[in-house]
Amino acid sequence: MAETLALFGSKPIRTKSYPPHITTGEEEKAAVMRVMDNGILSDFEGSHNEWFLGGPEVKAFEREWADYYDCKHAIAVNSATSGLMAAVGAAAVGPGDEVITTPWTMSATPISVISNNAVPIFCDIDRDTFCMCPDSLEKHITERTKAIMPIHIYGHPANMNAIMEIAKAHNLAVIEDAAQSPGVRYHGTLTGCIGDMGVHSLNNHKIIQTGEGGIVTTNDDDLAERLQLIRNHAEAVIASGKSVKSLVNMVGWNYRMNEIEAAIGREQLKKLKGFLEERLSLIQYLNDGIRHLPGLCLPILKEGCDHSFYRYPLTIDSSIVKISAPRIVEALNAEGMDFYAGYQPLNEYPIYQKMTAFGHQGCPFKCPMYSGKPDYSGNNLTNVSWAREWTFSTEVIHPPLTANDMDEIIQAFEKVWANLDNL
Ligand SMILES: *Cc1c(COP(=O)(O)O)cnc(C)c1O
After folding, report:
1. What's the per-residue H, E or C state across the chain?
2. Which of ligand 1's atoms lies nearest the C-alpha of 153?
């Protein structure tokens, strides 16, 4: 008889908590001290002068990021959230417009649409990658659609060839949410440099980080200038030399990155490849340890795609195992693991269910300039509903964790799988 589960009182496999995700070391410390010795912690000004584009660390970080990405421009910001907001703004999205994304992401993706007074529309995901489903995307396009925001969720690229083809046919902007896929290639091109703009996150959960931070990549000169203006108060539109083609959305914010963050970012970028390799070797070890378990499906890797494994997603084949992901997660976490059941699909959040964002009139959803009727019921999201029930994931697949930590995860899975009849 198999040992009973920790859920029912046996000793958990792991009793110590997981170590924090620390990606910085001596190099970052030295970079911070370089800025401190200099004493200039940020060197931005809103006016159109030599400080409009920030200080030396920000400029160097942007140049190095753009070179690494083989992309013309990189614009550093203080979070991916502000980067997404700036990108949607730069794409001239506004009241009356719709932007199509998926609800299987972090809240900031569609909020960046709402923050520009436009309406996010949720299409379905693909079952194998959890990214935007191109067929579903196409079905959701209306005369109001202005842009598409695919997410390279968990770190696997979205089906960009199909998405770019649809975007081209309908003349839509593409803003990639690449927050979870730094350094991940799609048929040779780094994710974030395939669409019109790509947004990368540098918050402390992400694969490389500056504490808080983000960076937007684009190959388009006009979009780059619009991003720089939105990032930095947009006052400079009045100056000679700053002659953006359109004043639409030239509403300036302060999304500027400071010198300390940029100095840390420069060191983190050098470590990115190594971090991705370390993650991959942990994942391969873990895959080999659990692939024999019936009904447990490992993450897939589509042809031509890398994976950052920001999260490690698993799927249950419900024709073999009848216990859904939330219950499996409960049993694993009782063993001291750190798994999550899915994302809560964003369409279920009150902001969409009640369609109330700005003010008392329900803007932007009920704005008089908006003629659509968004469906946030989830009835159009078959694969999202499936994913909610049958997938789960973890983030604890990064250094300083080792094969020993993976062994514990493998043991926990074996224990749970030996007890499936009792769950
Ligand atoms: C983390 C994340 C964001 C937001 O990043 P911040 O830098 O914290 O603003 C946006 N989208 C996705 C998919 C993310 O994972």
Report:
1. CCCCCHHHCCCCCCCCCCCCCCCCCHHHHHHHHHHHHHCCCCCCCCCCCCCCCCCHHHHHHHHHHHHHHCCCEEEEECCHHHHHHHHHHHCCCCCCCEEEECCCCCCHHHHHHHCCCCEEEECCECCCCCCECHHHHHHCCCCCEEEECCECHHHCCCCHHHHHHHHHHHCCEEEEECCCCCCCEECCEECCCCCCEEEEECCCCCCCCCCCCEEEEECCHHHHHHHHHHHECCHHHHCCCCCCCCCCCCCCCECCCCHHHHHHHHHHHHHHHHHHHHHHHHHHHHHHHHCCCCCEECCCCCCCECCCCCCEEEEECCCCCCCCHHHHHHHHHHCCCCEEECCCCHHHCHHHHCCCCECCCCECCCCCCCCCCCCCCCCCCHHHHHHHHHEEEECCCCCCCCHHHHHHHHHHHHHHHHCHHHC
2. 13
Is residue 78 within 6 Å of ligand 1 at its C-beta? no
Atom number in ligand 1 closest to CA 151: 13
Res 241 pLDDT > 80: no
Q: How confident is the model at residue 245 (pLDDT cuts 50, 70, 90)?
A: confident
Pocket test of ligand 1: the residue of 78, 88, 101, 106 to mutate, having most ligand atoms within 8 Å of its CB, is 106
Residue 134 C-alpha to ligand 1 middle, in angstroms? 22
Q: How far is the CA of 180 from the centre of ligand 1 (A)?
A: 7
Give me the percent of the chain exceeding a pLDDT of 90. Answer: 95
* Average pLDDT of the residues of the chain: 96
Q: What is the pLDDT of residues 54-93, one digit of tens each?
A: 999 999 999 999 999 999 999 999 999 999 999 999 999 9
State which fold the 26-268 domain adopts.
Aspartate Aminotransferase; domain 2 (3.40.640)
Q: So what's the pLDDT on residue 240?
A: 54
